[in-house]
Amino acid sequence: MHLSRGVAALAGVASIALILAGCGQKSGQANKTIKTSTDSELTTVDPSKTTAVGTFNVLNNVDEGLVRLGKNSKVEPGIAKSWTVSKDGKTYTYNLRKGAKWSNGDPVTAKDFVYSWQRTLNPKTASQYGYLFSGIKNADKIQNKKAKVSSLGIKADGNYKLTVTLEQRIPYFNLLMGFPVFFPQDAKAVNKYGNDYGTSAKTQVYNGPFTLTGWTGTNNKWTLKKNTDYWDKKAVKLDDIKFSVQPDPSTSLNLYNQGKLDMSQLSATQAKQMGNKKDMISRKQSSNYYIAVNQKNKVFKNLKIRQAMSMIINRKTLANKVMGGGAIDNNSFVSEGLAVSPKNGTDFTKDTTAPASMTYNPTKAKQLFKEGLQEVGRSSLHFTLLNSDGSDQKQLSEYLQSALQKLPGLTVTLNNIPGRSILSRQADGQFTVTVANWFADFSDPITFLNILTSNNPSNISGWKNSEYDSLIKASNADDGSNANARWDDMVKAQNLALKDQAIIPLYQSGEKWMVNSKVKGIVYNTAGANYNFKEAYVK
């Protein structure tokens, strides 16, 4: 998903910033409250319509799907107590537990999953996350209005058995089931609240470890309260988690320094200023910020020009000194820490090979740029670099402008605009050169690699390569049942894309936190919904 994951394939909000703190308790009482600050407001908790990462983190704790994702995105039983997969990998049968309830007292049944998926895919709902259902029988046809919603490959066999039929093997299917878009919905609640469904805490029902309270739809405070009807309530140690919107990181850091917060996310500037404090931790994000050049433009069809633009950028300086905040240079499009090889446990980024153009070499870059301009019949080049208007992205734009203009004959003009506007411009191809980003929806390399296929709507550069398309198709189909072969397909695909400079990777983003050792048990995953508070506690 594009940053700020507030957009799923194409919308954007700022990445969530959680700041956790122990609530004041009377002497002798156990502390069972976490106070949390966030930099993003809630707009809706309708799982079919939200696109914001902050909301997905809320939904991941107030609702539950067929599975839950534990530490390192480990698939664990959720509403489904068990499941089986057919030999061809195309049929999943889930056995649902009978003790699960909605907060209005309704039982959670297989029909709630059928209803939810059909509602999300229904073109009338206009969900931006429908693309994640691709591969489920008839999902693409339904989105393209070529099949009825009722033909989707999901069937309730009674109340507690659910069968999902795929058009092709999807090796990461159960990882998808841990993403809130695939969670169930209570049709009774949707029909009761109509257009107001999910617009406030009171116009939604919940089946997860917590329930949402105190959110009116417009206020900047809300609480996740322990759900006493949750099937696994014994595992939930907290009474509640209190959220408040605090957009200024300086305020949060001051509260942390005063002992009023247990955990505070640092801005990039703060992280650089803090140095290496013992209570500072880094959290990687499964992301990639990159330059996309519009390859409909004759100039950018030239490989040497694309390679020169890549080679003139010092990524170590960019990640460590310009961006900070936990950013890393991994010479990859797929993020570091997302997935490991089924053969030997090697990280994907270590199995792939970065081409020479990913290494800073200003002398070679200038030579390639000069040759590229000659090949397209130009002596100079001027373009506008489009990027969002956040302070860190403005800083990035200025650095890129300075670096790129070291190429002889190149002039770069900057245009920083609001996040929602830039995503619309990128989707419509209304740019020459732009900074873009991708955040993983689930813990598998294919979540990045899919977007560079020829017909993917998120392939904003317009790069096309038939060999690449074949490798991705094989990894999703023919080689889907062979983990080693599938891994090799994906490694070859990234190597090919980087060698042909499909895009120009810049850095992988991260977060720096000041953390009090009292906060324990929070599960943080780099992909999808990041935070799982089910077993969190304050020591």
UniProtKB/TrEMBL annotation:
Keyword Signal: yes
Annotated Pfam families: SBP_bac_5
Subcellular location(s) per record: Cell membrane
Topology versus the membrane: Lipid-anchor
GO cellular component: ATP-binding cassette (ABC) transporter complex; outer membrane-bounded periplasmic space
UniProt cross-references to Gene3D superfamilies, sorted A to Z: Dipeptide-binding Protein, Domain 1 (3.90.76.10), Dipeptide-binding Protein, Domain 3 (3.10.105.10), Periplasmic binding protein-like II (3.40.190.10)
One Gene Ontology biological process: peptide transport
Keyword Protein transport: yes
Main location per the UniProt record: membrane
Full protein name: Oligopeptide ABC transporter, substrate binding protein
Organism of this sequence: Lentilactobacillus buchneri subsp. silagei CD034
